[in-house]
């Protein structure tokens, strides 16, 4: 497991002009839609549908970018690029890494959201 920060709150807030309400809304949308995109990638992977894996991981990558989460972004890019190349040979392992990193990001975002609500 990586000890680097899971995401950069400062950079993510800077992307929304330090508007905490907008950030919290983005977090809520990501918590709702991120797992759906991941599930779509898994379903496409199960069907050996490289195009579907690439499409779902690309959509997920766009959402991850908003949170400045390098490990999650790297995992997502690796899966997307492999799928775009039509090579699903190592896609299961790449998916597992993405799933783990996405879970870490979602937990960190939930923690940050809950911290903001308590303030």
Question: Secondary-structure map with pairings?
Answer:
Layout: H1 9-15, H2 20-46, H3 50-65, H4 70-84, H5 91-118
Helix pairs in contact: 2-3, 2-5, 3-4, 4-5
Q: How would you summarize what this structure contains?
A:
By secondary structure, the protein is mostly helical.
Explained architecture:
The chain has 119 residues and is an all-alpha fold. It has a single domain, classed as Four Helix Bundle (Hemerythrin (Met), subunit A). It is built from 5 helices and no strands. The chain has helices at 9-15, 20-46, 50-65, 70-84, 91-118. α2 packs antiparallel against α3 (50-65), α2 (20-46) packs antiparallel against α5 and α4 (70-84) runs antiparallel to α5 (91-118). The longest helix has 28 residues, at 91-118. The chain is elongated. The protein starts with 8 loop residues before the first helix and ends with a helix.
Radius of gyration, in Å, reads 15 Å
What is the global morphology? elongated
Please summarize the sheet with the most strands.
none
Terminus-to-terminus distance: 30 Å
What labels describe this entry?
mainly alpha, 78% helix, Four Helix Bundle (Hemerythrin (Met), subunit A), 119 residues
